[in-house]
Write a structure and sequence with these properties.
Strand order of the largest sheet: 2-3-1-4
Number of helices: 3
Structural class: alpha+beta
Oligomer: single chain
Number of strands: 4
Helix content: 25-40%
Strand content: 25-35%
Largest sheet: 4 strands, antiparallel
Radius of gyration: 13 Å
Shape: globular
Order of helices and strands: EHHEEHE
Length: 98
């Protein structure tokens, strides 16, 4: 059993961070939660990322689906933002709990 999981996250810059801060807390809490089926906000090497863990077993099809799902959830949060695929990052990160 691995103690890491892939995480697909959108790297948040200062502009996006300010847009997030201006959202109603009720909207943020719907989409951003710890250990959520939606989005999680994490910090990795001083970079804030908003995305999803993929779990222990992942194939290429699942990665592509989650990639699209993360972008669609981000667009629900801030539809006016211009999302760039270059800001989407995939990382292997430690799992807090299985």
């Amino acid at each position: 059993m691995f103690d890491t999981s892939l995480f697909i996250g959108y790297a948040i810059d200062e502009v996006y961070k300010k847009e997030l801060e201006n959202l109603p807390s009720s909207l943020k809490s719907l989409f951003i939660q710890d250990e959520s089926e939606y989005l999680q906000l994490i910090e990795n090497e001083e970079t804030l990322l908003l995305g999803k863990f993929l779990g222990e077993m992942t194939d290429c099809t699942t990665i592509e689906l989650v990639y699209d799902h993360v972008i669609s959830l981000l667009k629900c949060l801030i539809p006016s933002h211009s999302y760039s695929k270059k800001n989407l990052i995939i990382l292997a990160l430690p799992i807090k709990s299985l």
